Amino acid sequence: MEIIQSTANKTIKNLVKLHQKKYRDIENKYLIEGEHLIQEAKEAGVLKAVYSLSSYDVGVKNVLCSQEVLNKLSQQNSNAKLIGVCKKDETPTFPCDHILILNDIQDPGNLGTLLRSAYSFGFQKVILSENCVDLYNSKVIQSSQGALFHLQIQKRNIEQWIQEAKEENYTVYATALHDHSKYLNEICFQKKTALILGNEGCGLPLSLIEQCHECIKIEMAAFESLNVSIAGSICMYKAFIQQDQTE
Amino acid sequence: MEIIQSTANKTIKNLVKLHQKKYRDIENKYLIEGEHLIQEAKEAGVLKAVYSLSSYDVGVKNVLCSQEVLNKLSQQNSNAKLIGVCKKDETPTFPCDHILILNDIQDPGNLGTLLRSAYSFGFQKVILSENCVDLYNSKVIQSSQGALFHLQIQKRNIEQWIQEAKEENYTVYATALHDHSKYLNEICFQKKTALILGNEGCGLPLSLIEQCHECIKIEMAAFESLNVSIAGSICMYKAFIQQDQTE
Question: Are B147 and A223 an interchain contact pair (Cβ–Cβ within 8 Å)?
């Protein structure tokens, strides 16, 4: 079996380009790292190849490489063991009652963590605005812990999307400090719930807030704001618990 | 007024060493970045000097530097504007009912976010195990949004600390999947509450879990675990809300 020893190898050079969004978009592929994600990607049917130090059989093409080559493919640490190549897939569509909408989330860790929480709390569909950080950024994938393989994720214009969601009888909730904001503990989430979170620095624009049915603020002892992935996850947990108790 | 132009300047070289924990420990100092943190540090009385591009008067020594020098001091981006030098302070002590205990948290973003949530939800005291990531790591400080300036934070042996907390009538809660774990929604947090969170990869050791009064698991639709800062923040929010409703 061939072992790729050189970081100058043409295949490796092309794969390294996938560290950049531009090439992920052109090639329709992205890299993942580590056994957990590779297993999740395999189950989701998006895994195309595995690059590894020693033989790793997961039913897709397996290419052996030197440690130096794996480190070149990795964006995480200096001791990479397994790198997977995935193809961007058509996201499945299925009906779901709880939807998360993310407007201009910039931090990859926040986006990944929100996907992980969304999947954990039964928000099976996620809508991303055009200006969100790239879904296939390595930190997003890593902190999602593979949740992105299970969710319906769509990139959309949020204003338009809200209009459509209202026509489909979703109640749309914004998380924002606003004159009409209600405390989370007073919110009774409806069966069809869409929850919108805004950018880390500047929150949601007023034009979006005004389109929503309700505005949520989280009770706090001090400070004015929480990390967006914390605020979003607390709201999703609450909606999940309420639904669980109603059913 | 003197302007430091060279990254080879001796003062600058010594400040750059504060990027490493070893030197923060020796010098008992650390760096912070950006206006928000500098204001918070000033109010907390720990700010000693500000290095800036143009004059910045906040009542402490102000040193002007070139952009190149500021970038050398920064650990965040290539366009740093304000760097503050703080001294590690004796943490204040005051009685408080809700305490967060962090055992071997490794990710700086998680530690910082947990401090921000702790302060937001009235957990005014935080106990760190010896193996937690350094509190004065720049990412910890940044993601805490300055919460570390408001909290009582102590480094302790967690097993010993739990014994003392029990003697002071704290009810000690672990977050862990365990035979006896109760769902969060069934937990009635006591007035004196200590909440323990474990390491990102391996959770809490059984020896610590067994010392706790109750073990909490969070209701989920899918997956087995949440990000530790999410799990911890949801528990702290719940404890805060319950206390708020009792008072």
Answer: yes
Report angle CA B228, B230, B235 to the nearest 5 degrees.
95
Sign of CA dihedral A76, A82, A87, A91: negative
pLDDT in tens, A162-213: 999 999 999 999 998 887 899 999 999 999 999 999 999 999 999 999 999 9
Give which of B39, B120, B183 to mutate to test A binding, by max A Cβ within 10 Å.
B120
Q: Among all chains, which residue has been given the structure tokens 């366009």?
A: B79
Number of neighbours of residue B78 by Cβ within 10 angstroms: 8
CB contact under 8 A, B229 and A227: yes
What is the ipTM, given to two decimal places? Answer: 0.94
Residue in the structure block whose two tokens are 């004159």: A179
Q: Are the C-beta atoms of B181 and B215 separated by less than 8 Å? A: yes
d(CA A132, CA A102): 7
Kindly tell me the sign of the dihedral angle through the C-alpha atoms of B192, B198, B200, B203.
negative
Structure tokens at B205: 């050791």
Q: What is the value of pTM for the model shown?
A: 0.94
Assign A147 to helix, strand or coil. helix
**Which ranges in A45-107 belong to alpha helices (H)?**
67-73
Summarised one tens digit per residue, pLDDT across range A110-161 is 999 999 999 999 999 999 999 999 999 999 999 999 999 999 999 999 999 9
Measured distance CA(A183)–CA(A193) in Å, rounded: 17
